[in-house]
Predict the 3D structure of the following.
Amino acid sequence: MDRTQGQPGQDEQAAGRSPAGAPAAQPPAPARVVTLTTGEFTLTVNPVDGSEIETLRPGAREDAARRPAKRDAAARADRAAAARPPALPGPPVPALPLLERAEERERLVRLLGRGRSVRLTGPAGSGRSALLDAVAGACADLAPDGVVRLNGHGQQQPAELLHTLYATVYETRDERPDRTRLLESVAEIGAIVILDDLELGGAALDELLRATPECAYLFAATPDAAAASDDPHLEEVRLGGLGRAGCVRLLEAGVGRTLTDEETAWAEDLRFASEGLPLRFVQAAALLRQRDELNRTAADDEDEEPGVFEERPRDPAHVPLPTLAQAAAPAELLASRTSESARAALRIACALGGELPHHAHLPALVGDTHADAAVAELLGCGLITPVGPRYRLAEGVARQLEEAGYGESAAEEARTAARHYAWWTGHASVTPERVAAEADAVLAALAGADVVAAVLLARTAAPALAAAPYWEAWERVLRSGAEAARKAGEVAEQAYFHHELGVLALCEGRLERARAELEASIGLRGALADKRGTVAGRRALALVTDREALGAETSPPLRLEPPPALPAAAAAVAAAPTAARGGSEAVTQVTPVIGKPAAGPPASLSQMYADAFRPAPGPAPLPLAGRPGPGPAQRRKTVLLAAAGALTVVALGTVVGLALTAGDEAEQPAAPAVSSTPDAPAVAPPQVPGSGGDDPAPDPAAPAAPADPARGGGGGGTATHPTPPPARTPGPHQPHPTPPAPQPTPPTPKPEPDPEPPVTSPPASPSPEPSASVPTTPTTSSQAQSPTAAQSPTTI
C-alpha cells in the first residue's frame, strides 16, 4: 500500500473528502467557533477570519468573578483515568515488578505526608516513572484535593503548569483565567502534585512553589536537569541502579522463565556495564525473548523434511546470546527483529524528534490497517516509554536508530505527518482537547515539514490549541506559522498569524508586544485590501490603547519646590513718607512667615520649632500714663533695621546716658552748630522714621562703649551709664536676642550717614509747659500727645 495514500490535498480538504479519498456523505461541517473568557475579555476563536476580542459585558463580568467549584473524588478519578495512556491493541505487555525501591517509596510517602516537597533525581532509565506510580497510589487520601499528575517535558515556564493544575482541580470550562485570578485560585489548592520529567529550576521552580503554598510536590528529574531551588523545604532523594539480585529477578520477570547459568553470567556483566539501570534489563529481556522465539522456530523446523527446491539449510544455526556491546546499545538489534509496521513507526518517531504519534494515527501514517498494534510491540521491547497520555522514544534510542539509518527519510516522514495532522486538526469532529493531547507531535511535524505544509498545519492547528486552551503551544504554532508564511510568500496567512499573536499578547497583558503584532497585521491586511481583517485588527488595537491609558498615571507626581528668593530691594524695608498727618510717617515693613534659624544646631526640639517658625511682631504697646521716662532731648535711641532674604530683625537698642559737662555752668541753648574740635559735644545720631515714643522698649544688647577721646567728651568729663535691666529668657515662640558683638579696641571708625542738625537739650525747668522743640527735628504724634514724657526733668 502506498505510504501517502489517503493524505488529503487542498482540493480534497476544500471538498470535505475523507482521508481515504472517498467523497463525503454530507457537506463539510461549519467552522468551529469557540468563545472563551479570559480575565476582563471575551475571546471568540474564529478559524476563518481570526480571533475577535472584546471587553466583558456587565452580566458576564459578574459570572466570571465567581470562582468555580472544585472537583470531587469521583470527578478526579475519572480525569485521572482519562489522563492515563490508552489500552493498546495487540497482545498485552507484561507488567514488571518494582524491585529494590521499598525504602525510597516509604521515605517519599512519609515526606509528602508531612507536607514537604521532594525532588527525586535519577538517570534516565532508572525507573523514576514506575516509582512515581507507586507513590501516587499510596498518597491518594493524604490531601484534600487528592493527587494531581503533571508532566514537565518541554515546560520551561511555570505558567502552563499552573493552568493545568487549575483545570485539573476546578470544574472549569471555556475559561482561561488571567494571572491574578490564577494565582488566587491555585493558592487555595491543597494537593499532592507529582511532576515527572521536570525541566524547571532556579527562579522558575521557586515561583511554582510560592504560587502553591498548600501543595506538596514530588519532582522527578535527571541529574543534568536545571539546578534545584534553594528552598530549604525541598528535600533531595537520589535514585540509583539495581543490585545483582534485583537485575536477575527483573530479567527473569521479563523473559518469563528462570535464567541459565550462561544467561546469569551475561546478566552480571550487563549490570556492571549499565550500572544496574532497569531500562537496560527491560531491553535485555526483550532480546532474550526474541532469541527464544528464533531458536524455537528453528527447533520446530527440524522435524520437517526440507523440500527439494527449498534453499533452507538442513542444519539451522543456533542464535547465540547478544554481546555486551549489543546489550548496551540494543535499539538496532531490537528494531531489526520487529515487524515492518513497527520499524515504520520508529522512522516516523525519528523524524518527529522522538515523539510517537497516537496509535490511532499510525494506520494513516504507515499505510497499514494493523499498524496500531506496533505501539504495544515497541513498548514491550523497551524502545518507547510513556510520557503522560502519549509515548516517545526511550533514552538513547533515537541516537542509536539514526546511526543505523532510520533518519534518512526524515524529511519525507515529517511532510507526511504534517499533511496528515493538517487534515486531522481541521476536521470538525476532532475536539480541541484531543488536539492539545497531540500537541507535541504536531509541533514536531511543524518543525520538520516544508514551508507549504507548515503553513497549512499551523493554520488549522492554531485555532484548536487556542480553544483547548493550551496557549503555550498556541504561541509556538503561531510563530512557526508566521515564519513559514514569510518564507512561502503567503502575505494573507502571515497577516493572520500576526493578528493572532497580537490577540494572545493582549490577553496575557503584554501591551507592547500586542501593539507591534497588531500594527504589523493591519499593515499587511491594508496592502491586501482586506477590509474585514483590517477592522478586526483596529478593534483589537483600540483595546490595547485603552489598556495603555488605564495603566498611565492619572496625574503627575507632586513635587515640592522652594519658593523663589526675594530680590534684595524687596527684602529691604520700604519706607515711603506719605502726607503727614500731625507730623507722622508711614512705615512699610516686610515680615517673613518662616524665620531664619538661629546660628548653630538647636539644643532641643522646642527650640528647633521656635527657630523655624517665629511669630510675626505684634503692634507696639502704648506707653502707660504717669510712667516716668527720659525727656525727648535726653533720650537717644538706636534702631537697627536690616532685612536679608525676607527676614525682619527685631530692633535692638541701648539706652545711652547723657554726657555731662565737667563745669558747673549750665549748657545754654544755642543755635544748631557742628563743632570740629574734640571738646565739642557728641553729635546725636540720626533718627529713623518710626522710632517714636510708641515703639517698644529695646532689648538690652550690650553696655555702651567707652568714650572715645578722639571724637567727643571734654577733658575731665565723665559719662554715667544706666544699669541694664536683667536679661529676659525667650519663650518657645519669642525671637532669640542677638548676642552682643565684641567691640575692638580701638574701634574702627565706620562711615555714617549724613547727620541731621544736632538737637540740644533745653535746660531743666519746673514750668509745666513743654519745652520748645527744634524745628529741624521731626516729632512723632506719640511724643506730642505724651506730656509726661515731655515734662520729665533731666538729671544732672
